[in-house]
Design brief:
The chain is an all-alpha fold and 67 residues long. The protein has a domain of 31 residues. 58% of the residues lie in helices and 0% in strands. α2 runs antiparallel to α3. The longest helix is centred in the first third of the chain and has 18 residues. 0% of the residues are buried.
């Protein structure tokens, strides 16, 4: 009987929270911005420094862009 007495208030709280729309999927935590360059930015920088040639640049760029 004591367990039943504890279960009713807990269920009421859960019901109120659900009815008000406070669902876990409604909460989105911000992603920390690490300011890391994208793969395409790294590729452009390598091409600009002359580490790769034009053919390599075009091939990797088309791979990254999904062509």
């Amino acid at each position: 009987m004591m367990l039943f007495g504890l279960l009713i208030p807990i269920l009421l709280v859960v019901l109120v929270v659900y009815a008000l729309g406070w669902r876990p999927e409604n909460f989105h935590f911000p992603v920390q911005n690490t300011n890391q360059p994208s793969a395409l930015d790294v590729l452009k920088a390598r091409y600009a420094r002359g580490e790769i040639n034009r053919e390599e640049y075009e091939q990797v760029r088309s791979d990254l862009e999904g062509r």
